[in-house]
Design a protein that fits this description.
This protein is an alpha/beta fold and 872 residues long. Helices cover 63% and strands 7% of the residues. The chain contains 41 helices and 15 strands. The strands form 4 sheets. Strands 7, 8, 9, 10, 11, 12 and 13 form a 7-stranded mixed beta sheet that branches. Strands 2-1-6 form a 3-stranded mixed beta sheet. It has a 3-stranded antiparallel beta sheet with strand order 3-5-4. Strand 14 (722-724) and strand 15 form a beta hairpin. Helix 22 packs parallel to helix 24 (553-567) and helix 28 (622-634) packs antiparallel against helix 29.
């Protein structure tokens, strides 16, 4: 008897000894219904079984392919031994004939004995049974599963997930169309929604869903689909749907006025009504003609035939909510001596700040605009790259004669990026003390040329003269210049000195006081001067700014930063940032600061929204991409984090942080030491090899790769005695102690741990409330074998900076406490901490645990093994 495809598939499932489900959460069950626990014991064997079951084309797979896929870093002999061992274990668990070999070359899963849902899903689709196929699709392939040291396998999984998801979507659309043709609108809508769920952020799919509901005549469902999509875009990415999608939704809404809805199905009772009108008659035509009319409207819009409707909708939408015009203010060319470059940049920045007060004008951020300093690109090219419709550019010459007043010559011009047309230009040749009037006039002329009306509060910002002391203003501009050069101690201290000089020359310079406060707070945050005196200085400066100018937006920004950094009063900080946003609605620095703050609160959704907004406002800022990537990394959205880090590196190849962050990503996501090392090699090629962060990362990667001698060599050369970040205070000797300890050189390690103890204790006398120092001291005590003291200090670090107060630093304090517990032999306590850390967003992952020798003492423990497979 020949079996039909559905009957044969059911027959295979009933006869198979093992049922392998890879769609959604992975499961392996024997014919008697028991779960086969081989999956929980070794992730790579699970991955091998999954590949044999799901890889296409179906059938035997070459052993060489499997070796390259799963053991890329092993030599051939070891890889073959590992494969043979994995196949032996799988046969023992599933049955000797479940996996068949053909000579020494090919390996295959026996489909007669092992039923796989992926194979059944595709077979059902291929034979025209999409409903049966979709019943087998509860989730994506190998959902939530990953392994370390096999990047090609992970890439295969990503490709297959996308391919199978696309096939599932096609199947769902086929069912939707079939039900619509049969007149079953309710079931058609259900399958259309299911189809759209497979690509919920694909705008083309959303438009198809809206149009489909319009064709069914279910106008309300079409509008709900659009509103849900728009809300999700706004909430997660701070974007809005494209103009095409908005027009389609508007057409659906507008159709309500042209073609009234049918009565609800349950309204069957006869109701007295007035004489029939044109509208009421259309109600009687029935569902299908109404759907056709609506579909014609939709089709006309989508194909361009509905020109008049589209034009009217565009006009109404524009009148209701006009998008801000986008302007790039480029650094003005310095026509004077090279040392005057900061003045030309500063004048352009100040004009941009004045223009940024208008909510109808979106001024591209400084970092993006500064990339076009001395550019030979056309306004059209710049506008295209920055998404700007207009470009303001110009030049500055500062003339300082030996006698008489200094003069400044500024020549701005406003250009349309679309066609290069000059919209406005002027030459200003004025005494230098008229610079504020010049800046205000330029801003006024720009908004006039762009047909933008300023409200009174905005006009006050545009017309403001922050100081009458030109020398003080000079120092203020120098301070801005230094603060943007980087987070190095020398730049930040120079910025503070410049602002201090500015307020010394003009004690009424509120803007300089606000920026001085922010510079002091930055010194504290970056641990360049983490003293109470520095915080007191920050508070004094911002209080002075408020006394001088209570409504100054920059003062509110600085006060918010003080509340965040000094008091960890996040809600009050957010309140001050909200006040700032009212006057600076498009300030990317504000959105970035708020995103970082909300990330530390654990408000990840809000943080993502603000980072997306900052990226839109300053698309050329490496710092925005780097910080955004770190948050994605923290929440284990590794693919997006990797692309953001790559963009940050492309924008600023000489920036250290993206390289270091990307190094950590490969350790967290893949457990791949060689990929991490390759990133650090890339940093070396651009001259960053001597950066302390890169040296520290190299030493840590060497330790994770169990190359302890390399780590010691790295740390024994001319390197800093301390590695200090917001997360860690790590003496060089403590890293050496760790390496020697892992080499079982106990005596040498103990001497280094004792040196680390002495260094940390000395620093603790100066900063007794620094959580990082207590954690570092706890590690040193643990290395010396001082169990009680080590645990006490580790707990003190957690108490001073708990995760509930700061998810960023608090996470590392918990990680250090777990290290301390394992070092002193408190394995259950260490496992408890690790389980907690893996249950929340953070830097620790199963892939990292698999390679980190810190946890070797736990590897035979069942709880630790479950952590490695993500089944704890």
């Amino acid at each position: 008897m020949r079996l039909t495809a559905p009957v044969r598939e059911q027959h295979l499932q009933e006869c198979a000894l093992v049922e392998l489900r890879l769609l959604g959460s992975i499961r392996l069950r024997s014919s008697d219904g028991r779960d086969v626990d081989v999956l929980a014991r070794h992730a790579k064997r699970t991955a091998l079984l999954a590949y044999l079951g799901a890889a296409s084309p179906r059938g035997p797979h070459r052993r060489d392919t499997l070796l390259a896929l799963f053991w890329p870093e092993s030599d051939t002999a070891r890889a073959r031994a590992a494969l043979n061992q994995a196949l032996y274990v799988l046969r023992s668990a599933l049955g000797e004939d479940a996996i068949v070999s053909r000579g020494d070359g090919d390996v295959a899963l026996n489909g007669d004995l092992v039923w796989c849902d992926v194979t059944a899903f595709e077979a059902a689709l291929d034979s025209g049974r999409p409903e049966e196929a979709l019943a087998l699709y509860p989730g994506d392939l190998l959902e939530g599963f990953f392994i370390s040291d096999a990047p090609d396998f992970e890439r295969w999984v990503e490709r297959e997930r996308a391919r199978l998801r696309e096939r599932a979507a096609h199947g769902a659309w086929a069912l939707a169309e079939e039900r619509a043709e049969a007149g079953d609108a309710m079931d058609a809508g259900r399958w259309a929604r299911r189809a759209a769920e497979f690509s919920s952020l694909d705008e083309a799919v959303v438009r198809r869903l809206i149009a489909f509901f319009g064709r069914l005549g279910d106008r309300a469902a079409a509008v709900r689909a659009y509103d849900a999509f728009a809300a999700r875009l706004a909430q997660e990415f701070a974007f809005e749907p494209s103009a095409e999608t908005r027009r389609l939704a508007e057409t659906i809404r507008r159709a309500a006025a042209v073609v009234p809805s049918a009565p609800a199905p349950e309204s069957n009772a006869a109701v007295a009504s007035p004489a029939p009108t044109r509208a009421s008659l259309s109600n009687r035509v029935g569902r299908k003609p109404r759907a056709i009319a609506l579909a014609l409207l939709v089709a006309g819009l989508l194909t361009g035939g509905g020109f008049l409707v589209r034009a009217r909708l565009d006009a109404r939408a524009a009148a209701r909510t006009e998008a801000p015009k986008r302007l790039a203010v480029l650094p003005f060319a310095n026509l004077g001596p090279a040392e005057d470059g900061y003045l030309a940049d500063g004048i352009a920045d100040e004009i941009a700040a004045r223009l940024g007060a208008s909510d109808r004008l979106l001024v591209i951020g400084h970092a993006s605009a500064s990339r076009y300093k001395q550019t030979d690109k056309t306004p059209a090219q710049i506008g295209s790259e920055l998404g700007a419709s207009y470009v303001l550019q110009g030049s500055v010459r500062w003339e300082k004669p030996p006698r008489g007043p200094a003069r400044v010559r500024v020549t701005p011009q406003l250009v349309s990026a679309a066609d290069g047309t000059q919209l406005w230009a002027q030459i200003y040749d004025e005494p230098l003390d008229e610079i504020f009037r010049v800046q205000s006039d330029i801003a006024e002329r720009v908004v006039q040329a762009l047909d933008i009306r300023l409200l009174d509060p905005q006009r006050r910002i545009v017309d403001a003269a922050p100081t009458r002391n030109i020398e003080a203003y000079d120092y203020y501009l120098r301070g801005n210049d230094f603060s943007r050069r980087g987070q190095d101690d020398r730049f930040q201290r120079a910025a503070v000195r410049m602002y201090e000089q500015a307020v010394a020359l003009d004690s009424g310079f509120a803007l300089a006081y606000a920026m001085l406060s922010r510079a002091d707070a930055r010194m504290y945050l970056l641990y360049l001067d983490h003293s109470r005196e520095r915080l007191a200085q920050a508070k004094w400066a911002v209080d002075r700014a408020f006394r001088l100018q209570p409504d100054l937006p920059e003062a509110h920004h600085s006060l918010g930063t003080y509340y965040w950094i000094a008091l960890t009063d996040y809600e009050q900080a957010l309140h001050e940032y909200a006040i700032t946003e009212a006057s600076r609605p498009h300030d990317p620095n504000l959105f970035t600061a708020r995103a970082v703050l909300q990330g530390r609160q654990g408000k990840y959704r809000e943080a993502f929204t603000d980072f997306a907004r900052a990226r839109e406002l300053d698309p050329g800022s490496a710092s925005v991409f780097s910080n955004y990537g770190e948050l994605c990394d923290l929440t284990h959205d590794f693919a997006r984090a990797e692309s953001l880090y790559d963009r940050a590196i492309a924008l600023a190849p000489d920036g250290v942080r993206p390289y270091v962050y990307k190094t950590g990503l490969y350790l967290r996501r893949d457990g791949s030491v060689w990929k991490a090392r390759a990133v650090l090699d890339e940093a070396q090629t651009v001259g960053l090899g001597d950066a302390p962060e890169v040296i520290l990362a190299r030493a840590q990667v060497a330790i994770l790769g169990r190359r302890y001698g390399d780590a010691i060599l790295q740390l024994s050369s001319d390197v800093p005695p301390l590695f200090v970040t917001q997360q860690y205070y790590t003496p060089r000797v403590e890293l050496l102690a760790e390496a020697y300890s892992l080499m079982h050189r106990r005596d040498v390690a103990r001497a280094y741990f004792d040196s680390a103890r002495s260094a940390v204790q000395e620093e603790l006398r100066r900063s007794p409330d620094d959580a990082r120092l207590h954690s570092a001291l706890g590690v040193a005590y643990a290395g010396l074998g001082w169990r009680e003291e080590a645990i006490r200090e580790g707990k003190r670090g957690v108490e001073l900076r708990p995760i509930s107060k700061d998810t960023y630093q608090g996470y590392h304090r918990e990680w250090d406490l777990a290290r301390i517990y394992v070092m002193v032999g408190e394995h259950e306590a260490a496992l408890e901490r690790l389980e907690y850390l893996l249950s929340i967003p953070g830097y620790l992952t199963p892939a990292w645990l698999r390679i980190d020798p810190t946890w070797d003492a736990l590897r035979s423990h069942g709880r630790f093994q479950r952590l490695l497979t993500g089944t704890h």
